[in-house]
Amino acid sequence: MPSSADRAEELYEAINQLIRVHQFRDRDCICHHDVSVAQCYALETLVKRGPLRLQALAAEMYLDKSTTSRVVDSLLRKKYVLKVTDPSDQRAIQLSLTPAGEELYKTIRQDLVSEETSMIKDLPPEIVDGALTLIRQLTVTARARLGS
Amino acid sequence: MPSSADRAEELYEAINQLIRVHQFRDRDCICHHDVSVAQCYALETLVKRGPLRLQALAAEMYLDKSTTSRVVDSLLRKKYVLKVTDPSDQRAIQLSLTPAGEELYKTIRQDLVSEETSMIKDLPPEIVDGALTLIRQLTVTARARLGS
DNA sequence: TGATTATAGTTGCTACTGACAACATATCAG
DNA sequence: CTGATATGTTGTCAGTAGCAACTATAATCA
User: Fold this and answer.
1) Which of A136, A141, B29, B80 could form a disulfide with B75 if both were Cys (CB 3.0 to 4.6 A apart)?
2) A71 φ, ψ to 5°?
3) Closest alpha carbon to A34 in A75, A82, A81
4) What are the chain B neighbours of A9 within 8 Å (beta carbons)?
5) Would you call A12 and B125 a contact, using CB atoms and an 8 Å cutoff?
6) Cα separations (Å) of A58 from A20, A42, A62, A65, A68?
7) How far apart are CA B140 and CA B128, in angstroms?
8) How far apart are the CA of A55 and the nearest CA of chain B, in angstroms?
9) Which domains does chain A have, with CATH numbers?
10) Burial classification of residue B130, based on how many CB atoms lie within 10 Å of its CB (0-12 exposed, 13-18 middle, 19 or more buried)
11) What is the rounded distance in angstroms from the CA atom of residue A1 to the CA atom of residue B32?
12) % of chain A exceeding 70 in pLDDT
């Protein structure tokens, strides 16, 4: 029976590999379309959280507001997001997706999910369900540590 | 019972989250030391594969040779790697770690693994073993698709 | 051998990622 | 009204990453 230290070591390796492979695959997949990875992530966040202020978007993405501002800028130039000044606070802006932005994210998302689909098509459902549970558990645990 | 499409969707979400959280954590952890993430990845590859030519390192890391050349350059400046011209082929260079490079990677690695350790310390061993198996399976499957 | 071709690495260029600091503007507290 | 605070933007710097052009060396073939 492997020790706890061994398990940690192996888990590190396993997750490392998974992350690397997925990163490359996602980048390939996303960049076939009109946006970069960070830009796509911003689209995704706006799809999930709805219209947001820049600061809120930055917080959601764990990015600096300056970085976020520039990412949003590029999406603005490509007409995938809309900037509206908040009437109740002239400093703030509300960011929302244009129809084109929503459409684009939907397309990319389909591509990404279809990668997953073909990945699991030969795995038994119980296995996949197990993986799901565990991966979520790991994420929760890791996120808890991130805050500290 | 969820459909296969639902599972793919959920798996996409779950892996996405895990990757995001880990990415941030690793970056934090690595950048406390003297190197960036890519630089650390290069160190890791050299630790695992031993001395390599630049092209081989690039292939191992799935990076362009120009990108790899620059990453290596920065490690060279920091004295973590050594460049030796291959006597049998004046064009080629052998890259190897300096003692400082090995030491640095060992330290970073300990930090990274210890993150994993504290992450799994409250999870039952069977759960962790299960996650390990599944994550590896997913990596293998994803990697197979990467090649195509 | 000598000319052509192929390979190894480097460098120029472009674009994206991301943080920190300084800044302009707007809001709020006293 | 004035100082403090909050929102976004811009400047700057470093790192990531690929493509194309280049140098130098090696290999091939005529």
Assistant:
1) B80
2) -60, -45
3) A75
4) 113, 116
5) no
6) 24, 9, 6, 5, 6
7) 18
8) 19
9) 4-147 (1.10.10.10)
10) middle
11) 34
12) 97
Range of lowest pLDDT (A23-27, A140-144, B7-11, B12-16): A140-144
Decide: residue A53, CB within 10 A, 0-12 exposed, 13-18 middle, 19+ buried.
Answer: middle
pLDDT for B146: 64
* Of A29-33, A85-89, A108-112, B128-132, minimum mean pLDDT range: B128-132
- Only one residue has tokens 């978007």, namely A57
The spacing between the Cα labelled CA in B46 and the C1' in D15, in angstroms, equals 20
Question: What would the two tokens of residue A5 be?
Answer: 């230290």
Partner-chain contact B4 A121, CB within 8 Å: yes
Amino acid of residue A135:
I
Cβ-Cβ contacts under 8 Å for A85 (sequence gap 6 or more): A92, A93, A94
Yes or no: say if B71 and B126 are a contact pair by the CB < 8 Å rule.
Answer: no
Would the CB atoms of A131 and B129 count as touching at under 8 Å? Answer: no
Mean pLDDT in residue range A85-107: 95
Cβ A19 vs Cβ B44: under 8 Å: no
Question: What does the pLDDT read at residue B148?
Answer: 46
Q: How far is the CA of B88 from the C1' of D27 (A)?
A: 13
Measured in angstroms, the CA of A57 and the nearest CA of chain B are apart by 15
The segments of chain B whose pLDDT lies below 50 read: 148
- The amino acid that residue A141 corresponds to is T
SS percent in chain A: helix, strand, coil, step 5: 70, 10, 20
